[in-house]
Amino acid sequence: MRSWGVIGGLAAAVAAGIYVLWGPIAERKKRRRGLVPGLLNLGNTCFMNSLLQGLSSCPSFIRWLEEFTAQYKAEQNQPSEQQCLSLTLLHLLRALSCQEVTEDDVLDASCLLEVLRIYRWQISTFEEQDAHELFHVLTSSLEDERDRQPRVTHLFDVHSLEPEITQKQISCRTRGSLPPMSNHWKSQHPFHGRLTSNMVCKHCEHQSPVRYDTFDSLSLSIPAAMWGHPMTLDHCLHHFISSESVKDVVCDNCTKIQAEGTLNGQSVENQKTTFVKQLKLGKLPQCLCIHLQRLSWSNQGTPLKRHEHVQFNEFLIMDIYKYHIPVHKSTQSDLNQKSSEETKPGTKDGLAVKPSDAEQTCGTKSLLMNGACSSSFLMSSGTFPLTAFPECSSPVYLYRLMAVVVHHGDMHSGHFVTYRRSPPSSKNPLSVSNQWLWISDDTVRKASLQEVLSSSAYLLFYERVHSRVQHQSLELRPEE
Fold first, then answer.
1. Residue 426 phi/psi, 5° resolution?
2. Can you tell me the distance from the alpha carbon of 290 to that of 87, in angstroms, rounded to the nearest whole number?
3. In the predicted model, is pLDDT for residue 26 greater than 80?
4. DSSP class of 77
5. Which phi-psi region, left, alpha or beta, contains residue 437 (left: φ > 0; alpha: ψ -120 to 50)?
6. I need a surface site. Which of 209, 238, 312, 323 has the fewest CB within 10 A?
7. Which of left, alpha, beta for 152 (phi over 0: left; psi -120 to 50: alpha)?
8. What's the DSSP call for residue 391?
9. What does the pLDDT look like over 202-252, one tens digit per residue?
10. Torsions phi, psi for 234 (to 5 deg)
11. Contacting residues for 335 by C-beta, under 8 A, at least 6 apart
12. CA-CA distances (angstroms) from residue 451 to 419, 444, 447, 454, 455?
């Protein structure tokens, strides 16, 4: 009898220990319902945890990783997960988006730091790091992994620069159709975009060739606020693409005109004039990462953090910031009928217009939509009220907010947290949840949209929303 009493006491002690450590099973399931796993802080790894939670809320990025890593399944010598960043990242993001069954409320992301060391990135877990810098480390490392795959670089990458161009508008000098685009350009990650730089001479209005540069995030400086006016995301975007004058630039066209006016073919000095430089977005990505620069410097040269609130919305319209390739005169007559039926924002008769003209098309209304707006509009859930803005009733480049990374503290120390959407239900995996979550490392709770829009954002993650017409267009043109 005594032995049975001892056994019973031990069993009771074990049961009590399990209850203290894990709690009742029913309560544990109830606590996790509608939430996502948290991430263990390995020292000072809140920068990594917040970024991973933000990326896991972007379904297009996860789908791209799934398609990209599918190539490894066909290989005989399959690389291990510890050797490939894409496989490690996909495993973490699927777990954080509840696409993989896990019994853990808190996950360990140290495997990501280990695989980054293979890519020669030494990231200390005991020092303050930046979430935006880690984002660039991940995207550049994924590009390095892609570049290791055998490929043939495609000469005609016009589709990657301007996906709106149809095949009929492009032809070689031999008047033959272009060969199919290589898989190299198709495998660009969904954060990949292109900036255009346009130079126009003020004297003769000659336009230099447009220059394209790649980007994976838009890093926006916060302009000086006007007294009595709130700072909005549109103010930062307009400041980013605002034109600037560049003096003492040699204009070949002005030099040519000057040479034609001289007698006996006398040599003419290069004519230097003032050019106007204009930035635009040549190719908008499927997933848009916006970085708000909150670093500033005092008169003494010490770093300071800017704490002001930049207003942003659940939906973002980017049409007026998009560059449109001018249509050649020889093909203009063929497109007149089509352009009269369908005029794109920021264009006039199929030609690119000045920023001031584009702003008149969608201008002040866009400033209202992408930042400063009424409280009733801030509380809109899921559906974009296009009827409230007839001037922009059919935006082509409409984005939905998916996650916000916030930094609390100063330039020397602080903490990163994330607001993100809850994953969609398993019954409707293609839907978008209206439930928001606040995540700080291993702590996860529900949050309201108003709380999200009131936060001081550091990183904003948007994903493009395609209309039904655009979905049909993409189905007809799978090569784009």
1. -65, -25
2. 25
3. no
4. S
5. beta
6. 209
7. beta
8. G
9. 888 888 888 999 999 999 999 988 887 899 999 999 999 888 888 888 888
10. -65, -35
11. 327, 350
12. 9, 15, 7, 5, 6
Tokens found for residue 447 = 């949050």
| Alpha-carbon span 414 to 410, nearest angstrom | 6
- The alpha-carbon radius of gyration of the chain (Å, integer) is 27
The total of other beta-carbon atoms located within 10 Å of residue 328's CB is: 9
Rounded-to-integer distance, Cα 34 and Cα 420, Å: 12
Indicate if the pLDDT at residue 154 is higher than 50.
Answer: no
At 223, list the tokens: 């302009």
What phi and psi values does residue 415 have, to the nearest 5 degrees? Answer: -150, 140
**What positions carry a catalytic annotation?**
46, 415
Q: Containing H/E element for 61?
A: helix 59-73
- Four-point Cα dihedral 345, 351, 352, 355, nearest 10: -70
Q: How far apart are CA 419 and CA 135, in angstroms?
A: 17
Q: How confident is the model at residue 343 (pLDDT cuts 50, 70, 90)?
A: very low
Judge contact between 148 and 119, C-beta under 8 A: no
**Euclidean distance between CA atoms 377 and 232, whole angstroms:** 15
Judge whether 97 and 52 are in contact, CB under 8 Å: no
User: How many whole angstroms from its chain centre is CA 351?
Assistant: 27
Whole-angstrom CA distances from 291 to 240, 421, 445 are: 12, 19, 25
Q: How far apart are CA 201 and CA 197, in angstroms?
A: 14
Q: What is the pTM (predicted TM-score) of this model?
A: 0.74
Q: Is the pLDDT of residue 423 over 80?
A: yes
Q: Backbone dihedral region of 228: left (phi > 0), alpha (psi from -120 to 50 degrees) or beta?
A: left
- Residue 191's Cβ-side half-sphere holds a number of Cα atoms within 13 Å equal to 23
